[in-house]
Amino acid sequence: MSADDPVGRLPAEWQAALEALGERAFRAKQVFRWMHQRGEFDPEKMSDLSLSFRARLTEAGVSAPLSVEQVHESKDGTRKLVLVAKDGARVESVIIPMTDLSDADASAAPSDEDDADAAPVAALTSRARVTLCISTQFGCAMGCVFCASGQAGLMRGLRASEVVAQVYLAKKYLRPDEQLSNLVFMGMGEPLHHYDETARAVRLLTHPEGLGMSPRRITVSTVGLVPGIQRLGQDFAGKIGLAVSVHAPNDETRDRIIPMNKKYPLRELMQALRDYPLPKRRRITIEYTLIDGVNDSPAQARELCTLLRGLPSKINLIPMNPITASELHAPKAESVRQFQEILAAAGYSCFVRTRRGDEVAAACGQLAMAEDLIKKKREREELRAAKSS
Ligand code: SAH
Prior knowledge:
Layout lengths: L10 H10 L6 H10 L14 H9 L6 E8 L5 E7 L4 E8 L6 H4 L13 H4 L3 E6 L3 E3 L8 H5 L1 E4 L2 H12 L6 E8 L9 H12 L11 E5 L3 H10 L5 E5 L5 H7 L8 H10 L8 E7 L7 H11 L4 E7 L13 H13 L3 E4 L15 H21 L1
Parallel strand pairs: 4-7, 7-8, 8-9, 9-10, 10-11, 11-12
Antiparallel strand pairs: 1-2, 2-3, 3-4, 5-6
The protein binds S-adenosyl-L-homocysteine.
S-adenosyl-L-homocysteine binds next to β8 and β10.
């Protein structure tokens, strides 16, 4: 139970907490619904609760975990929300309209065609589908050399309440003709680094008394933390979509760009993926950021085919988005085309992820907050160097 994070409590935990306060247990559902179904965190507005009970909730620390500071809209309809936590930490979430169902962003999360058991959103409504990309950490500790968050370093992980609040807040920014279809944990941070908070967030979002999201519409993207992948598989019976940042077909190349590969090399990672209890017809998303001259050669494409053989997967190629903290470049269009062709010819389903939200710095690895953190980190380092000289 997260005693100091009341917004992150599940209904059973609310029940226990309320009983301890001498409140009636059925209030637990009411409180939970206000927050996790209606996205209302202000006890003053929970109109069917008594005034004294609302005051107690306020005393217990129930309040909005995040507030919206800015909304940036890109020409392609992508909206980036800049959110501020109570301690002033800023995170970003990105609303991505799925303009075309073959859109590679959509392929990060399951489509109905992948999963005959999932409730077909298109059948429920004719509203346009939206994918929401949320952050799990303020900065990131993984240090991937091509990623702005990785270069910024980790400030802190988000609490489960802060993770789910991104979803409820973003929903308020959807147009009447839009519907939240898929949720991807692909923003700033490594979701499996703070496994407990991520797992709690998934439990909150999928709880039938709350938003009741289907776990099949949630995808967690990881750099490849093997113990976290194993726990996620066990705790949710493989129902949560898994995306893995592979980015290289061998350890030599992967070591150069993903420091975590030294701890969990490809052999162990691939074994964890093969062991993931995937339901039938579901596939693991393999993310592959193409970097000019590093991992984008035809030979590497062929090696990737060998690495992935036998794994139910779909491949998302992401041409690297440039970041200020790195000398690495975007691949040439010709290399991307060739790479994709080789994978397709070997029978892999392979998409090139189109760049979305670029002019508002909402594209993969570009979240502007991270660039800001890097600047501050550099300033601190310069100050330290100046002091010591
Ligand atoms: N920590 C998670 C989520 C990271 S962001 C993970 O590693 O999967 C989601 C994806 O964007 C990851 O595949 C990440 O490697 C990729 N990415 C990060 N920086 C990028 C950049 N500059 N250009 C293209 N893709 C990038």
